[in-house]
Input
Amino acid sequence: MTALGLTLLVLGAIVAVAEAHFPAHGIAGGLGVLAMAIGTVLAISGLGGGLLVALLAGGALAGSGAALISLTVKHGLVVQKRRVKGGAEGLIGHLGVVRTWTGEAGNVAMDGALWQARESLGSDEEAAELHAGDPVVVERLNGLTLCVRRAEEWELL
Output
C-alpha cells in the first residue's frame, strides 16, 4: 500500500506540473491532484497512520490543489480575453502623425518609430491629401507597411 501511495504521489505531481507546460484547462491538473490525494491516503494508512488522519491529509491536499488549479484556470481565461498589445494586431487602431506624404504613400511616426505607410483602400476617394502633421489611424498592416486613414475628430479625444 505504501509503495502504491508513493507512486501515486509522484505520478500525480508529474501530471500536475505537466499541466503548467501543456495547458489542458485544468483537467490534467485536477487528475494529478486527485492522484496525489489518493496517494496520500494510501501512503499514510500503509505506514500505520489512522484512517481518519489519512483522510484528513488527503482532503487537505485535494482542497489546496483544487483551489490552486481553479485560480490558475480562472486567470488563464481572463488572459485569453485581453486585447492583443504586441505584433501586427496590436498596431491596429493606433494613432500616428504624418511626417512626409506624397501621393498615396509616405512616412508616419507612431509610438516612437517611423513607419512606411500608404492610404487605406477603404478611404474616401474625395478625401483631401494627407500632409505633414496630420493625425492618422492604422487600419491594417501589409507586411511592414501601415495602411492608414485620416483620424476623425472623435478619435483624437
Notes: The longest strand covers residues 95-102. The longest helix spans residues 51-80. The mean pLDDT is 88. The beta strands are 95-102, 105-110, 113-119, 135-142, 145-150.
